Amino acid sequence: MADKHLSTQFDSELTSVSSQVMELGGLVESQIRRAIYALSQFSVEVANEVSANEARVNAMEVEIDRDLSSIIGRRQPTARDLRLLIAISKTTANLERVGDEAEKIARMVRSIIQSGSPRSLPSLELRVAADLASGLLNKALDAFARLDVNAAVAILKEDNLIDAEFDGFVRKLITYMMEDPRMISPSLDLLFLAKAIERIGDHAKNIAEFIIYVVKGEDVRHTPMEKIESVVK
Predict the structure, then answer these.
(1) What are the pLDDT digits (tens) for 48-106?
(2) CATH classification at residue 9
(3) Chain centroid to CA 21: how far?
(4) Which of 106, 154, 139, 105 is nearest to 25 (CA)?
(5) Are 46 and 113 in contact (CB under 8 A)?
(6) What is the rounded CA–CA span in Å between residue 149 and residue 215?
(7) Predicted model pTM
């Protein structure tokens, strides 16, 4: 009876910390959307809002880490429970870094606006890539909540689309800079924005890899897709 009671408490603690991660994920997704809105509307106000919310993202990461340390210290979990707690910790760290990328986008938007850079640069393609990255993060969080390994594999494959968008955007920016040297500075700003968006996709991919680690007990980082698919089967 006592063992069952402890197990129920442990499950409750796991549910609580998992809910905190989902809350952090929702905040970070909002940060991405607002940062891209700031870019599309050239809004300093919205960019400032994103930067102001960065402190909240950081505080939530610290709180989750503190709760995880407490759970591990008191419960001393093993096997899948321990893998889940490790994956939650790593997912939290990746979400905080996504928040950093959103804040970076906001800072770059302010820089572009303050420099008076022309709006004729191809920012539309950036918004397309940002929507892909934000959508991928949303899928990763949903898959993590369900520990869905098949969805995780699909996310790993979809990350390639964001990489392709980034490569195409870089080629377009190079063309702009070659045709008009005045475009070099604003183009470099957009290049940094594009890299931040690509990194968001990378963090979503990392979260997908943690899902496979929890469920299958295999670390699939830096692993060819063929081997990952064989692990999941």
Answers:
(1) 999 999 999 999 999 999 999 999 998 888 888 999 999 999 999 999 999 999 999 99
(2) 1.20.58.220
(3) 12
(4) 139
(5) no
(6) 7
(7) 0.91
How many domains does the chain contain in total? 1
How many C-alpha atoms does 40 have within 13 Å on its Cβ side?
14
pLDDT digit string, tens, across residues 152-196? 999 999 988 888 888 888 888 888 788 888 778 778 888 888 899
Angle among Cα 208, 211, 217 to the nearest 5 degrees reads 130
Alpha-helix runs per DSSP H in 180-224: 184-216
Amino acid 189: pLDDT: 81
Name the one residue in this structure whose structure tokens are 């407490």.
70
Nearest to 89 by CA among 206, 223, 7, 217: 206
Rounded distance between C-alpha atoms, residue 55 and residue 122, angstroms: 31
- Closest C-alpha among 61, 52, 59 to residue 30: 52
Helix (H, G, I), strand (E, B) or coil at 219: coil
Domain interval for residue 17? 2-232
The per-residue pLDDT of the chain, averaged, comes to: 89
The answer to whether 28 and 102 are in contact (CB under 8 A) is yes
Distances (CA, A) of 179 to 79, 118, 122, 172: 58, 15, 14, 11
For the chain, how big is the Rg over CA atoms in Å?
A: 20
pLDDT at 223 over 70: yes
Query: Any idea what the Cα angle at residue 14 is, between residues 4 and 82, rounded to 5°?
Result: 90
Shortest CA distance to 146 belongs to which of 100, 207, 105?
207
